[in-house]
Amino acid sequence: MDMKLEVVVLPVSDVDRAKAFYTERLGWRLDADLPIDEGYRIVQVTPPGSECSVIFGRGLTAQEPGTLHGLQLTITDIVEAQKELESYGVRVFGPFRDETGAFHHAGDTHRVPGLHPERASYGTFAAFADPDGNEWFLQEVTQRAPGR
User: Fold this and answer.
1) Looking at CB atoms within 10 Å, which of 25, 62, 90, 106 has the fewest?
2) What is the pLDDT of the chain when averaged over all its residues?
3) Are strands 53-58 and 7-9 parallel, antiparallel or unpaired?
């Protein structure tokens, strides 16, 4: 049976500020903005090319705003992606790789500045945060691993 990740719930403090960041600044598609009642509002946005969407709003999660870390966006050219995000006024940290050569550690203590030496697929990262501090990673994937 196929199981596809469809939605990630993002804890935010200001729904309109988050909506502006993701749609106007990042250029993500606005799929829905449903103000159900005073305590319940659902905003759904989708990154370009993604089949998984992000929802945020009021009454959706008990998580504190800004506590989601490790969300990941896969891109094919990390240098161009960083330039594009920075042109939108988004502060991007990187590129970097983990000192182990594998997936990045939590935090930034094991980061090695710069692109992966061979520019190996899955080896280079960058990071940015939304206005609440929810942390996103970019991972450069130029050739998918077998079975992916």
Assistant:
1) 62
2) 92
3) parallel
Please check the confidence at residue 65 and state whether its pLDDT lies above 70: yes
Instruction: Give the global pTM.
Output: 0.91
Q: Which is more confidently placed, 106 or 135?
A: 135
* Nearest Cα to Cα of residue 134 among 67, 88, 74, 55: 67
Structure tokens at 94: 């990187």
Assign residue 12 a region (left: φ > 0; alpha: ψ between -120 and 50; beta: otherwise): beta
Length of the chain: 148
**HSE (CB half, 13 Å, CA atoms) of 138?**
25
Alpha-carbon distance 39 to 19, whole Å? 17
Closest CA to 71 of 7, 4, 2: 7
- Give Cβ neighbours of residue 137 (< 8 Å, ≥ 6 apart): 70, 71, 72, 73, 104, 125, 126, 127
The pLDDT, as a whole number, for residue 148 is: 65
